[in-house]
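Appendix C reproduces, verbatim, an entry submitted by the partner laboratory led by Prof. M.T., so that reviewers can inspect both the input and the predicted structure.
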Amino acid sequence: MHDAHASRAGETSVPLTASAVLVNKVGLHARPSVKLTQCAKRFVAKIELALAGDGPWTDAKSPVKVMRVKAPQGATLHFRVAGADGEAALAAVLALVHDGFGEV
């Protein structure tokens, strides 16, 4: 018999967390929000962001929700990622923020 539970083992892992400072001049406005959500949607993992390490958390795959965060330049974005490709997802969103969303 095939053990379906084994294939889901990676999905129950402890969430990964990290943070990055917004370096682009206008912070998390419309264009960076869309770039962030497009990046997040490339992964299966659940990706959330917040302005504080303890939340409230926002779904990074929702452009409308990400734009509502309205984080200014210099703000720290906290990320929480869980899922099979969580490490790659976290690395990708952090790289995007560190790169200033290509606007710096």
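Residues 1-12 have pLDDT under 50 and may be disordered. Additional entries are available on request from the coordinating office.
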